[in-house]
Amino acid sequence: MQVRTGKPPAQLEAEARDERVGVVDRQEANAWRRRVIWLLAIVAAVWAGSVVFSGGFPAGLTVDAAKPFNAFADWASTHQNTNPLFSNFLTPLKDGVNSAVDHLVLLLSRMTWLGVIALVSAVAAVVAGWRLAIVSAVGFFVIGLLGLWEPGLETLALVLFAMVVTLVIGIPVGVWAGRHPAVDRTIRPVLDAMQTIPAYAYLVPLVLLFSIGVTTALIATVLFALPPAIRLTTLGIRGVAEGSVEVGRAYGATSRQILRKIQLPLARPSIMLGVNQTIMMALGIIVIGATVGVGGLGEVVLTGLQTQSVGEALTGGLGIVALAIVLDRVTYGWSQASRKRRGQSSVDIFGWQISRRVAVVAAVAIVVVAVVVGRQVIRQQDFPTGLTVSIAGSVDTAVHTITRNIGSATQAMSDAMVKVGLDPLRSLLLDMPWWLLCGIAALAAWGASRRWTLAVMAFACLAAVGVMGLWVDAMDTLSQVIVAVVSAVVLAIPIGIWSARNDRVHAILKPILDTMQTMPQFVYLVPAVALFNVGRVPGVIASLVYALPPGIRLTDLGIRGVPAETVEASVAYGATPWQTLRKVQLPLARPAILLGVNQTIMMVLSVVIIAGLVGGGGLGFQVILGLNHDPGLGMVAGICILLLAVVIDRITQAMGQPVAAKARNTGNHARKGQDASPETPTGAPLRTPGQGDIRREEGEG
Amino acid sequence: MKRTRRRLFFAVVALTAALLAACSNVSSSSTNTGGSGGAPDNSGTTINIAVSPWVGSAANVAVAKLLLEQKLGYTVKTTNIDEYAQFPALSNGDLDATLEVWPSGHAKDYSKYIQSNNGVVDGGLNGVDGQIGWWIPTYMLTDHPELATWEGLKTDAALFKTAESGSAGQILDGDPSFVTYDQPIADNLGLNLKVVYAGSEAAELSALDAAYQKQDPILLYFWTPHWAQQKYDLTMIQLPDVTPACTSAAANDATKYACAYPPDPLYKAFNSDLQTKAPAAFAFLTAMKYTNDDQNGIGLDISNGMKDDAAAQKWIDANPSVWQPWVDAGLAAQT
Lengths: 701, 335
Known about the structure:
heterodimer, A: 701 residues, two-stranded antiparallel sheet, 29 helices, globular, B: 335 residues, alpha/beta, seven-stranded mixed β-sheet, 44% helix
């Protein structure tokens, strides 16, 4: 565990006790006064700094960081046909992977559509129960109905393959890190980098090494999906109670035996959650794979984009969502089942208790029958075209009607947002001398954590952005991130509260939030521009869509996590609902809400590239520019996004932590739900493009 | 543990059974179009052609694919690929050919891969002429006829103001990777215009569509051939003529550029081993050449919802005199 605070535990406990008794008002007032003074001091410093000193980052201090990357890219492009590294290693590797995935697709398509649906449902039934078998069958049927059968299989094959590669690498590394904290500390920043540097930035270097096709997409996917697999394995291994390990040791078990017989089995639910997250991540960047010549659902989305057909892009997007929901529910169900099932040898099928062995045999039989019927009786590999429905045309018409009718209003809103919010904020950031902004970040880091190392790191990371020559772009991006985060928080917390207090709202929101997180952003690129003009605003809107769900879910989770007795006690003392919310539920849910804010920021930063694609400028623009002209620039811009993310992430996490510690000391259960959520041991969040890590209320809360 | 192993066993059995079932009846559904109608049988050779992300490219490739299959008997595979990612793949042989490269965007690739003999050869022009320029919707000319030439922008720049461009008029650029001189042109001609990047072609087109529906003013960096030219009635603003003086002044310093964009004769490029691997296909693709009108006709059918192959077949049926020489060149090279 990371050191949470400089305060001695005794003082923490004392504070916690005070809070429990409810003597918080005086302290709160003091805290507020202190905060206001700090804020005024910072505002004064910013004002003085920007008036007295010139803003921005001095050109004399910058270095050409792109050069080594470009030198490498040039070397690779001129040596790819001659160097033995390519002919003996990279090219055979690429060819092997390509043909393996091709064969998997071929195998799936030979099984015929009936066989694939039977296979998927059978697997779901055996690992996660009959309800999920039905969900799976429906999901794949929908993919077929949308006319996406073939691309759906290609995407499925790629995702499954990526999952296997990721787990083969991720689980051993995760175990290693779980047993050796030093390893964990060393790889954590690497994992951060893998998740935060946009895949776009390293796509071109990968193309130079592995050419176009499945291999490149696979590597990009694995790089992106590996962190949760490693983190969750580490978390699982670390979460095994010390006592269990001690017992093993006392009975003379070797370290290997302890790992195999105690740690791995007990860590299994967490590892399974890692499998789940891996798949969601892989689906999250499936569209990016399509830009390097990989077919499948991503290609459907991109083609729709090229012909401006929102309907076609949406069709592809729905296919991805359907696949994501099936894979998510099944692997999540599996992880839950593996937790509950210990020692249970029968499965529940429509209320009948059937022994597992019989269930497996029956499932296999059903699949074989389905394949044989599909091949010999129906004789149709692909989903029958007679059954497919096309939604593209009507969606296009609807989108046109909507944009025509409300376009003027939304565009006026967009203009106001630029003039009132984005422009002034950007000029403020640009007018400040660089050291002042870095200093404020350092101060914030110190204030949040009381650790000077974090303060130094914050200063250094931001200064490094300037040194790499992208200060202006970084400030542009930062101003957009701030506006997006503030809007997201303002919207997410009330919605989250509403959802926590009303089960129906909660139930309605769930699929909507799932879709918001899994639908590739490329799909709403076109309507976003139609509604909000080209520029920074559609980018902000796209980040909002993506960043709202974790904020809403964590607020909901936090408030629902407040023990019922506590709420009842406050009601018994005559508190109005508003008072209960303000004085009891919100303070107790604060750690969860702050984690939600942290997640929101990370999500916003992860779609900076998408913002660049709709005219957002800034670092996202530089990555896209670099993609084709200057891979080094793309890489450097990607690293700058990483640095911004690391600084903001560490500061916001530190802000949440003392409170989290307090909450834990008071013994409430607010964090119970999150303990099972795929947080890293330090509370570092997982950035998921899929259905967030924090959606895991069911089963815990 | 035991149970896990048993489950594993069943899984293996299941997979084997499914595999056997899947492979038992190997009546491949792929159709063999080669070998019929007196075409040579080259079906053992697969030609992999790049499809760039625009409809014109899809039209070229669909025509080439059908003729290579029907008349020369090859197996053709197409790969959708970013236009910049295609060069490394052409160089190492993962792709055999690309049929439409815009020279203005690929000067660096041309020198790196073609001029320095790095696995790619120039396949000659494809006959289609590209032209980049500044475009407005034609409806704007009714109220502002002066916008036919750049002089009109001196007075009318303010029409194009947006929140993003501030006090200047906005000229909307698309994908940042496309080569543009828009800001230098505007500055050197004394026009109060500011370049705003849409960030992607899709976003630029979406902005165009939104403006077009409301008949709002919009000024774009755009080009022809492009399928959107058929969907929207656009007019290119006349910029000062391209002169040697203009281009040489800007040769070393792009900020000096002050005239129209030079025309872009689109060319083809092949992997350097294509000629030995598939001489007939090489000769066919080298000879392949048609016009903007040919391509636009196919492109319009595709953007109206026709499948690539169907649109190409329609053109093939109607224009045998255009493609017969390509096929003859291919047959002549067939050994």
